[in-house]
Amino acid sequence: MRIEETGIPGVLRIQLEVQPNDDGWFKENFHHGKLAELGMEVVQHNVAYFEAAGIVRGIHAEPWDKYLSPSSGRVFAAIVDLRSGDGFGQVETFELGTSDALYVPRGVGNSFCTLTSHTTYNFLVNEHWSPERVAVDLFDPELAIAWPLEQLKYTERDAGNPSLEELRRQRA
């Protein structure tokens, strides 16, 4: 496991070692001790399967830390700092495959777009699910996220999230 800091404080890009074998490959996706060293005690592991490319979810910032990694397919991840402070609204994007993971601390929004069909995405979290979250519009021009595909499928709920400016005003 190789860990790199990103431009958003607390967000870590993690390179996982994938071992090819005669049948395909093997990777250690989760190791309790290694994640505990990052300050994350995993309490829940969620898996989401997406049949098509171009499915977009997010931008959501929940009250828990997240460890994200595809176990099949590829995703484009857009991470947005939604915590109060100087970094509010900062965006960083990543393309993630099976040898990649992201550690996203609480208060930082995460979103993704499936780049391939039959994508399976793992979400490890350090708190049990609750409905509490902060969300921002996937297509907010201020964020200027360059989604990699023209044909996107998303929920109306995600498209109807407030703009970054509306969040700013709510917090003022």
UniProtKB/TrEMBL annotation:
- Site residues (Participates in a stacking interaction with the thymidine ring of dTDP-4-oxo-6-deoxyglucose), renumbered to this chain: 129
Question: For this UniProt entry, what's an example GO CC term?
Answer: cytosol
Pfam families xrefs: dTDP_sugar_isom
Q: What domain of life does the UniProt record list for this protein's source?
A: Bacteria
The record's section on InterPro entries has: RmlC-like (IPR000888), RmlC-like_jellyroll (IPR014710), RmlC_Cupin_sf (IPR011051)
According to the record, the segments passing through the membrane are: none
Question: Under the GO molecular function aspect, what terms does this record hold?
Answer: dTDP-4-dehydrorhamnose 3,5-epimerase activity
GO biological-process terms attached to the record: dTDP-rhamnose biosynthetic process; polysaccharide biosynthetic process
Its family remark reads: Belongs to the dTDP-4-dehydrorhamnose 3,5-epimerase family.
Return the PANTHER family for the record.
DTDP-6-DEOXY-D-GLUCOSE-3,5 EPIMERASE, THYMIDINE DIPHOSPHO-4-KETO-RHAMNOSE 3,5-EPIMERASE
> Would you tell me the protein name for this molecule?
dTDP-4-keto-6-deoxy-D-glucose epimerase
